[in-house]
Task: structure prediction
Amino acid sequence: MNEFELIGQLTRSLPANKSLVVGAGDDCAVLDLGLPDRLLLFKTDAVVEGTHFTSATPPEKIGHKALARCLSDITAMGGTAVSALITLALPRDFDPARVEKIYSGINTLARRHNVSIAGGETTLNPERLLISVAMLGTAPRGKCVLRSGALAGDAIFVTGELGGSLASERHLDFEPRLAEGRWLAENFSLHAMIDLSDGLAGDLRHVLKASHVGAELLAGAIPISRSARAASRAETSAKPPLLAALTDGEDFELLFTVASKEAVALLDAWKKQFPKLKLTCIGKITPGEGVTIRDKEGVRPLVAHGYIHFA
Amino acid sequence: MNEFELIGQLTRSLPANKSLVVGAGDDCAVLDLGLPDRLLLFKTDAVVEGTHFTSATPPEKIGHKALARCLSDITAMGGTAVSALITLALPRDFDPARVEKIYSGINTLARRHNVSIAGGETTLNPERLLISVAMLGTAPRGKCVLRSGALAGDAIFVTGELGGSLASERHLDFEPRLAEGRWLAENFSLHAMIDLSDGLAGDLRHVLKASHVGAELLAGAIPISRSARAASRAETSAKPPLLAALTDGEDFELLFTVASKEAVALLDAWKKQFPKLKLTCIGKITPGEGVTIRDKEGVRPLVAHGYIHFA
Result:
């Protein structure tokens, strides 16, 4: 049983109550505690030494990444982050100076986005450092963007450029798209949104599954990062750049869908609002299931794990 | 630098914002998001294999304990638990059946207290199981009980009996005092409250430090559990029962203070409301600093770590 199968089984019958609006399965849980204008967003995310960073990673960047990942999930709901709690599971013989630098990375990012660090705890995890961040945010009632609202015919957009995040270490100092996500949710009727952590191909599938639709991507439109292109040139064993952009993961850009008739106005407004950040229409939502990719040779299915099946 | 020194240093200058009412240093953080009648409580707590349970602990009890600890913290604010997120950091070769049983323990307890499990995540922690629970609760505005309100002259109460929790495995299946904590906060002007996780002596000191007061305990009044007495009889190397009740930890009972003139009415009402659960006045809050303990031989200081100094 892999992680996704296990989660699927566990989340089938979790306890609910009347304040739970959206439980497991979206970027954040959504709670209604009776605020007239807002819903609450609730999220946890953990980073572990050896998986999300190494013992050589600068500690400020570990702290930055731990908080930024949670912020990115709040953003993907069109929300505003309010407060975080930090759980530090420290190995034996931890260096207090290293822990202070981790907090320095957390605090700098938190201050930039007006997020309070409301406390947390330290505990012992003898073999390796693990940081779990719990975050609380809000989204305007009626403007909370789920994964489940994509409709056939929608245009699919992504922010920024994709691929090569691990190789270029962008995953350690990316800036979560908080202003962008909030602006999009406030000004347009987004149908679905997700942040790209597992890779475009994988995360798009989460949206499609939740929305019961399919998608057709335009190969030539996928915004491939400079680092994905460079890695491909440098090593013959590296992924082709398009495959890297589809599958590398840890981009922490936003993917969203919007009715195609809104697409041009949205792009125009975006260019005025965020002139330095690319926004690209990469394809459309289709009826039915599955993902296809179109290039000059035709349309082909994009199979599981994002690898392109050359039929 | 020990855990408390490190936490002290880290929490000196954490980022705040206008919604943060109480940050690091109480049982829960307290947030004001503008609900007219309630404040939000926000808490995380982690349990780690080898520290809080062993590889032989029945998995349902691991799940129960992980959630119950967080519930106990919500209770210690006089609050009501609303929702939790579960982070499971799983070793390699985890047994999915074991994980399901952990969730079964979590879900049973959550349903009993009408707490939603709003999701969470699984991640890899190769060497051992770690579970972090994030919890959201509410407390009536003006009825949230902090550690910092104890006043000289207050009576000090504890629920239940203390000591021997680890030896008797009560720490694995204790029932958090949710109904009791809420009833106390709603019906009496509690000055301070805390849940007993580190042991009476240590946790009382957290209240005294936050409130800038001292305390005098009555040795003969401390409610010593049957398991603490039994352990002491069974092994000559065991702690004396009173010392066990003062320092064993993991009791998860409530300690609170209330104006002495309310003490008798509170005890009478308690006996009617919760006839099966002991409530004991164990001493009083004093001006100044430090803890003393009174027995038939006189008054002696209770020194750090709870060990009684025989002067």
In short: Residues 306-311 of chain A have pLDDT under 50 and may be disordered.
